[in-house]
Structure formats: C-alpha cells, structure tokens
Amino acid sequence: MLALLLCAVLAVHADALDVRVPESPVVALFGTDVVLNCSFSGVSKFNLSDMSVFWQLSDTQRTVHSFSQSRDQLIEQEERFSNRTSLFPDQLPAGNASLLLRRVRVSDEGSYTCFVRVQTYGRGAMLMQVAAPFSKPLVTWGQESALKPGDAVALSCEAYGGYPEAQVLWQDGAGRNLTDNITISQVANEKGLFSVKSVLTVILEPNSTYSCRLIHPLLGEEGQASVTISGQALGFPPLALWLTVALAVCLLALLVALTVVCRRKIRESCEEMRAEEEAKELEEAKELEEAKSSAATPLKS
C-alpha cells in the first residue's frame, strides 16, 4: 500500500528530490554485510518527523525497509529481510538514506529502489549482485592398474561453495586451451551456492600436464590446479613389474647357461675332431713308413 502511494505521489511531483544511487552494480559477498548507498539533496533544513525513506524490491515492489515519523515502520516488511536491515538515522539530516543489509543471501540479489520524501519526492534504483568465492579447485584422475599410454582417461576438476556459476578452462602443458571432450555440471545447494565439476577426457601420454582454471564472473580468477601424468604413472603395476623383472633375470640366466654349455660342447667337439685328425695322420704316416720299408728289402733266389 505504501509503495503504491509513493508511486502515485511521484507521478504528480515535477520538482523531485535529487536522489543518487550507484550507477554500477554493487557486488556483495555472501554472508557479509553490505551498504546500499542512497543520498539526497535539494531540500532545506528539515525535521526527521517530516521525512520518509522507503526501500523496496524494484521488480516485486515488496518492502525491504521503511522509515517515517522519526522511526522504522516494518509492519509490511518482506519476511526474509526481518532483523537484517537498518538505516543510519543520525545521518538522515545530512542526506544519507543508505540501507545496511546484514548477512547477505543469494536470494537478496536483484534491483533495489530508494524512495525519499522531504517536502517533495525522489527515487533511485540500483542493482546488487551477490558473489561467493569457490573453494580451491582439485584435479583428479582414475589411476587404474590397467592404464597404459594411448588409453583414454577422464580428468576431473571440482570446486565448491561459489556463486554465481563459474567458468572452467582446461589447458595443456603449453598453455593451450582445450575445448574438445569436456563436460561440465553445476548444482546449487539449499543456500543457492554452486558445486562445479568439469571432466576432460584425454589420451594418455607420458609426462603430460593438464591444468584446470576456475574463473569467477564477478571476482575474477578463483584458482588453478594441475596434474602431471608421468611415465611412472603409466608403468606396470608393482606385482607385474616384479614378475617381469624376475622373468627377465631368469631368461638372461638361462641364456648365459646355454651359451656356456654350447661353448663347452663346441670346444669338446673341436678337440675330438682334432684328435681324430691327428690319429688319422699318424696312421697314414705309419702305413707310408711300412710301405717304404717293404720296397727296400731285396728278393732271395
């Protein structure tokens, strides 16, 4: 009712107060207190009993705070603002009609209108945005034992407790933005704060680095996390590694043993062949000697 009355009065007053509010959006941190500035000028000295200050939500025209007859008038105040708003009464004579809003919630975000009446009327509307920083992002990946270079693996980047929704950027070790094979989900809790999860699917390569950057639309860059997939991370699991080493050692020992045996066999075979050759040569020499002896003996008559 009071809002409709103020609007009607504003419509018929050509000489309005000079009411000033911020032109740029005011960013309020979740859970903190914020002052929505509103000042006025253009009137002579006055008594507080002769002025009224009225704050309302611009879109729904619901009452945020009301002051008249030298005191707060909160009968029509929106319930969710109960015990969270106040003016600065001692500064009203100086033209300060600012509103203190305590313990800012996500639901407080929106446009607020400041109405002031002192002899005549004026108003100004401003936008308040709510911001909550995200937790430091964390990057994880599934280190299954069967992974090997060339396999596809999902890298997950998660952060919590922020508002509004964040932008997530993936980059490789050279700082190049990655845009393919990315999914992102952002879910709000009962307080309106978001949890963000982004998944990047990559092909495993040894010694590869991937970074996840979280960018807050109101507060700027929130944080960065990275993961490096080393050659060791893509190796065999410990049991298979030891089995492979043991098998390799056994094969090497067997190869050495076979080499020694073969060399021994070859040496023995060569010695046998050499002995046979020497025996054969000795036999031939003996036969030749006997033949010469027979030829030299004279025949008897």
UniProtKB/TrEMBL annotation:
<dbReference type="InterPro" id="IPR003599">
    <property type="entry name" value="Ig_sub"/>
</dbReference>
<keyword id="KW-0732">Signal</keyword>
<dbReference type="InterPro" id="IPR007110">
    <property type="entry name" value="Ig-like_dom"/>
</dbReference>
<dbReference type="GO" id="GO:0050852">
    <property type="term" value="P:T cell receptor signaling pathway"/>
</dbReference>
<feature type="signal peptide">
    <location>
        <begin position="1"/>
        <end position="16"/>
    </location>
</feature>
<feature type="compositionally biased region" description="Basic and acidic residues">
    <location>
        <begin position="281"/>
        <end position="292"/>
    </location>
</feature>
<keyword id="KW-0472">Membrane</keyword>
<feature type="region of interest" description="Disordered">
    <location>
        <begin position="281"/>
        <end position="301"/>
    </location>
</feature>
<dbReference type="Pfam" id="PF22705">
    <property type="entry name" value="C2-set_3"/>
</dbReference>
<dbReference type="InterPro" id="IPR013783">
    <property type="entry name" value="Ig-like_fold"/>
</dbReference>
<dbReference type="InterPro" id="IPR013106">
    <property type="entry name" value="Ig_V-set"/>
</dbReference>
<feature type="transmembrane region" description="Helical">
    <location>
        <begin position="239"/>
        <end position="261"/>
    </location>
</feature>
<dbReference type="Pfam" id="PF07686">
    <property type="entry name" value="V-set"/>
</dbReference>
<keyword id="KW-0393">Immunoglobulin domain</keyword>
<feature type="domain" description="Ig-like">
    <location>
        <begin position="133"/>
        <end position="228"/>
    </location>
</feature>
<keyword id="KW-1133">Transmembrane helix</keyword>
<keyword id="KW-0812">Transmembrane</keyword>
<dbReference type="GO" id="GO:0001817">
    <property type="term" value="P:regulation of cytokine production"/>
</dbReference>
<dbReference type="GO" id="GO:0009897">
    <property type="term" value="C:external side of plasma membrane"/>
</dbReference>
<protein>
    <submittedName>
        <fullName>CD276 antigen isoform X1</fullName>
    </submittedName>
</protein>
<feature type="domain" description="Ig-like">
    <location>
        <begin position="31"/>
        <end position="116"/>
    </location>
</feature>
<dbReference type="InterPro" id="IPR050504">
    <property type="entry name" value="IgSF_BTN/MOG"/>
</dbReference>
<dbReference type="GO" id="GO:0005102">
    <property type="term" value="F:signaling receptor binding"/>
</dbReference>
<dbReference type="InterPro" id="IPR036179">
    <property type="entry name" value="Ig-like_dom_sf"/>
</dbReference>
<dbReference type="InterPro" id="IPR053896">
    <property type="entry name" value="BTN3A2-like_Ig-C"/>
</dbReference>
